[in-house]
Please model this.
Amino acid sequence: MSILVNNKTRLVVQGITGRDGSFHTSKMKAYGTNIVAGVSPGKGGQQVDGIPVFNTVEDAVKATNANTSIIFVPAPLAGDAIMEAAEAGVELVICISEGVPTLDMVKATAYLKKKGVKLIGANCPGLITPGEALVGILPGNIFLKGNVGLMSRSGTLTYEMVNQLTTNGIGQSTCVGIGGDPVAGLYYQELLQMFEDDPETEAIVLIGEIGGDAEERAAQYIKEHITKPVVAFIAGQTAPPGKRMGHAGAIISSGSGTAAEKIAAFEAVGVPVARRPVEIPVLVKELMEKRAKA
Amino acid sequence: MSILVNNKTRLVVQGITGRDGSFHTSKMKAYGTNIVAGVSPGKGGQQVDGIPVFNTVEDAVKATNANTSIIFVPAPLAGDAIMEAAEAGVELVICISEGVPTLDMVKATAYLKKKGVKLIGANCPGLITPGEALVGILPGNIFLKGNVGLMSRSGTLTYEMVNQLTTNGIGQSTCVGIGGDPVAGLYYQELLQMFEDDPETEAIVLIGEIGGDAEERAAQYIKEHITKPVVAFIAGQTAPPGKRMGHAGAIISSGSGTAAEKIAAFEAVGVPVARRPVEIPVLVKELMEKRAKA
Amino acid sequence: MKIHEYQAKEIFSRYAIPVTKEKVCYTVEEVVETASSFEMPVVVKAQVLVGGRGKAGGVKLARSVEEARTAGEQILGMDIKGLTVEKVLVAQGIKFNSEYYVGLTIDRNSKSVIFMASSEGGVEIEEVAKDNPNAIHKFVIDPDLGMTAFLARKIAFKLFNDFALVKQAVGMFQKLYQIFIDTDASLVEINPLVVTDDGQLLALDGKMNFDDNALFRQPAIEALNEPDEDEKKELEAKEKGLSYIRLDGTIGCMVNGAGLAMATMDLVKYFGGQPANFLDIGGSSSPQKVIDAMNLLLSDKNVKVVMINIFGGITRCDDVARGLVTALQQLNVDIPIVVRLSGTNARQGLEIIKEANLPVVNTMSEAAQEAIRLCAACQ
Amino acid sequence: MKIHEYQAKEIFSRYAIPVTKEKVCYTVEEVVETASSFEMPVVVKAQVLVGGRGKAGGVKLARSVEEARTAGEQILGMDIKGLTVEKVLVAQGIKFNSEYYVGLTIDRNSKSVIFMASSEGGVEIEEVAKDNPNAIHKFVIDPDLGMTAFLARKIAFKLFNDFALVKQAVGMFQKLYQIFIDTDASLVEINPLVVTDDGQLLALDGKMNFDDNALFRQPAIEALNEPDEDEKKELEAKEKGLSYIRLDGTIGCMVNGAGLAMATMDLVKYFGGQPANFLDIGGSSSPQKVIDAMNLLLSDKNVKVVMINIFGGITRCDDVARGLVTALQQLNVDIPIVVRLSGTNARQGLEIIKEANLPVVNTMSEAAQEAIRLCAACQ
Model:
């Protein structure tokens, strides 16, 4: 099982001939991801790493039955690329591009909702189902197949957390980087429900950060819908208000969106919040053992 | 049964304080239609014919649970009015207004599709389920309750046809004027299917006219999906090409959209086409009797 | 509403779509002056609001100023399908090596704007549609998205292999869609769209029609309207709430409702008569409308008999009858009139008609047959 | 990116949204000249890119030219939250009888633009949100529809009973949305929106922020940018692919990834240290980036120790190590450095670090604790 990507994933890479696109294509391929096509307008007919390149996603999907797309195109073109993928008939789009204008994402997410196509990102590291498919820029070697589902608004912090889990012998079902932009695709609620429904996931790690109220909403959702144990971490406890901490979405506006509020929201619904990354595996183990006994 | 409107219809009239709106409100009310509200921005709190008037459709729906809206506002405002009705939560919108810009209808029909709301018109006479509800500007007295479903792109020609049916003792389940504009709401296919599914409808009369290929598509649809007898009539056999015959949609462009083509399309799928209005009741009777015997 | 080629291309230019260097001329002198300021060759093209000018000799290539003068003399004032050529476009001749067709219009079935593209440009697209429909690619434009870059690219790849052309086309297609939306068009066409010898896309000819229902918010477009004689009469009628189209027959028809009006014409024809017009007096008729309508019918000297066919819904038959009686009092009507009234207040209307000693019939069929009989009698 | 009140109102004016008659002034002389050409009273308002100018004394009513001069003298050059006032807006005083708030921003949950409206205008909307959240009406704008007339009317009816005001508001709200879309704004506010004594809606104050990610296609907006000293440094960093925010502490942090950078700061604080900055060197780091980052850290004289925390994904640890060694060779680094490298090519990176005789640790926790120890030692 796992969620979203697995060995049935047939991946098309949009922007495959670009610097990042070609680099990560070879990384993903080396991990074992089934990459069936690439797209680069004007380069249709070429090959990258033995993968056929098409001019349009439609051509790629028609020729290869790709069902998932990952996007590495420059930010000004990313909104259009997302919609192109959805229109061409893939079921899941992962947009890695960073710096996509917010209104482009407003338009793209509305379109994908109408088409019933799922989106991860933009401005995200992608996702991985260890041992099956790596669809993103995550370093595959730190992941371990197992039963913890993880979702995060950040990239390298995710790696740090996963590393903590893996070195403590705790494997992962699927790890999803949902991205750090204000308007993004799948968010905590949808992923929480997918992990809840996934028989291979036994516990969930949620890594949040300052800005917005997604964590507060996730806490409420957990209270109402999630029976599996959840552990959380919030980055940005020391972030000053009014400053964008790297991610476009990581900003404390008018005193709301603080780490303190988010931590309080989780603790109020019984979700333990790690104060340091090293606490994560400890908390996960505790809860999983408790659940096993119950 | 019947389709679309009946004694469960709770109607809100948009533009109720206008000349046409108020006139037809009293006509519809006199027929027995359950009119629960009117809308006229800036006139909320007033009454028309004992019907409460609201500033917005949302207010009207909240206060009265209206489920159907009829629109009499000036054409430049009609597209917006259609979307307002859909957003406010009614299930069916009937737009009487004539002369709505086509691009406004493109936008409105796309929105209604997304919301799952049905639209009749614009530029249509509305519809009637005899004995239950008149939602439009049709003259109620010519209709007779019965088992023939009728759909038409025109107004007075519909009355002529209905009159032929009624004076020959053939009653109607529901009669729908779908309107004469190039971009309109429900069209032949959808209504054919509704009549097919309606246990009270035993035969269907389809009144077409020149322009577009809706009749050709309807013929194809009848061939594939409709088991009940259908009789057709096409207006405009003598219309010259390139001239808009009153209705925005009634135009023969580049030699296509002619009456001859449409008649041929129906006859090719076994749908008899009346050459004159008086033939309609004759053909209907024949087919109904044939069906009764079978 | 239609506009001329040169007007369409002026709009294209405003959106930075490349067109030929060109100037519209109203006299032979202007043609000569313009041609003198251009490099040779030039093309002289009749500007008339009707198709088929090429076959009619309305387009001529000129290799010298003298040839341009001759072309101007021949084309200005010529008759094309009943229209007199009052202006020509003098355009710089362009070397090109391929012709395409692109166009936007409203699609009734998808309820959207569609983009049409074909590699078979330079000929009438209707002929391509008939002979080789697969040569026309059609793309529905989602009104929520408009012409996205990816859709424009998808279309462009159907036409061009050269990516440099694809990139030019993407921008051009997005602009064409914007023009369509901004002007409430019903048709925007470039035919042919050419690739010049130096690899540039260029609109060699352009065509635009507009949604009459949207002209109220397009004053700049409406200002370009040049109705011909028939259209002027139609517009005049429209201002009075009447929808009128002149035909060649002898039986003047006055009907309420477009569908019924067409059916009435059809019935006249069915019984062997010739309708003189389509005339829809519309929904809520006042007596004045009937007077206006009668005036309009009588202004056509071909009309030998008037047939009135009213099915009262909103229209009240007694209103029509009163209007008719007033019209007959005001106007000098010397031709027979047949009246059929049904529906709302028909009885009251028929009484008024009978009092005015006009022949009354009960059905459409009777009305048509009686009109034909009277028409034959008066000839 | 933020702009001044007067700039926002210039944009409003361009869209025909009524604003006060006003002029921006850079000197007291200009203030006097402007006030002399206006009717009395006028309002003199500090133009600074920070909130709370009213409480700081940056807004003054002047009933005479002399009072305007005094106000100009007091406000020009004053300090508001660390920013020097370099210009003031002299605006015509307006009589009004009610104040409202309207604003547009991005809503993360609906993934749409939302319109906010409140009858409690003229005070900070954040305070209204805290004290009386029900007083703020929020409306999600469907991106496929934009601000329809019916939505604008629905909003307007929440604020106004007078239909004449509703009609004015409908047009204004539609224009505000258009401004938001046209400029890639992230915030558009009118606060207060007032009803003048003669029944006109007017934007008494205006505020606009913009989406930094969209500035590439908004050159006219980007040209309005006036970064302060800190922001200049941040922008400079951004041009080098670094995301930098200065703080008040002593431990300089260099991290790859925003989330990890925040978590690193948090950990420093957890162990009792004070982070000197947020610094994300981003995804695919070249050695040059590390050199630039080190330069940036060392330019802050408060920094007593540098802590490098890299988790290699795309970033390769050996690249970071090489960049660091080069930086140390080029720069005169006289403060201690702690390096933690994990992930892609960590082993190779650590070897390079060790060869350069730099202290190496294994975990984030160790790095933070070691940095704090070194910092304490060097003070």
